[in-house]
Specification:
single chain; 204 residues; mainly alpha; Rossmann fold; 3-stranded parallel β-sheet; 5 strands; globular
Length: 204
Amino acid sequence: MLDILAFCLTHPFKISEIGIVFKFRKERERLSLSDTGNLEKLQYEQVARVMNVRVEDVRKAVEKWIFEKPLPYLAAARFPGTIELFAELKRQNRAIGIYSEYPASKKLEALGITADILVCSTDKDVDCFKPHCKGLLVTARKLGLPPSECIFIGDCDDKDGLCARNAGMPYMILTRKRPVGPNQFNSFNEIYNWVSKCDEFFLR
């Protein structure tokens, strides 16, 4: 937010960039409720049409403020237990797949973690947003596992939880609430402690 504020103060004639980013996120939410295909292009074209700007301007603003600017801050925002959990999964030779609404390779690098498979909602073989389950099904297929033998970890039941239920995949949701309910946890340390003590950690 400080970066955005500083940008607006020092580049007042470019404030439209920030408006484009907010509109992009809003239009993406709307697209998640539709079955429209070709999302990789449509997500930019929709904003360009609504705001009467060039598609290239939308792409540049999104690349800057969503894909690049947040990267230096990700490590500090990493949930406790993340590194330990990924290391334990690797130690147990567990396959790790990442399914993200946005391209995730640079984010994972900034977070200091790796995965076997990366899947994005705008990939050609997915082409739909959560809570549609296709992304999870593609991830499971690329991991060579049936959905019932995977566990999906997310942070929003309305999207991640519903996506997993639609896919028939066990799941857990990170929450700030206490006490936690079914399929909920407060920290990645909890999952790490659980996984490190289990030979098999599939939820039935």
